[in-house]
Amino acid sequence: MTAFVPFQGPDRLPEMSVNLQVVLLYENVCSGFRAKQAFDHLLDELELDTTFRFEPIGFDLLRDGSVGQALVKGAMGADIVVVAADEAGLPSHVEAWLAAWVSGRIHATTAVVVSMDESLCDDSATANYLHHMMDLAIQPGVSLFHHFAPTPTAEGAASVRDAWQKPRRSAIGTNGTLCRSESPRFRV
User: What is the pTM of this model?
Assistant: First the structure.
């Protein structure tokens, strides 16, 4: 994450401005939209003046090993990786990509956000999946967050990229819950 404080003059306090590189690993357009809600919620909570560079990567694109390797090299500078799946668990090629990113990232402090439909919130398979994700991301400087929210429909945008290019809306109650993942909070 690159942060800087622009000159504000002697009578004003500086405001934090943050530039983020965000990678979205998504299973389909609807899960990508749900991840957009998670990201918007995070930005609303942080109340930062934030600009971001967004890179959507569909799960299917990572099936080709050489494409996946090129994409992970290009993502090493990402500040946040959002993983949006439809069920508790990741295909092996997506998990391998995420493990390569975690171990090779260039920033000392990064975050992984796991976004799932709210119907999976109290499921034991989801708890096991989140524990597994914690094990995968257990590196100094990597924070894991989980997000549960209704999965929206794909109406209104032709692609995940279109949805992420639209300005964020702050709508209380529609963004779900974004929480930092800690071991004691999950049932196994």
Answer: 0.76
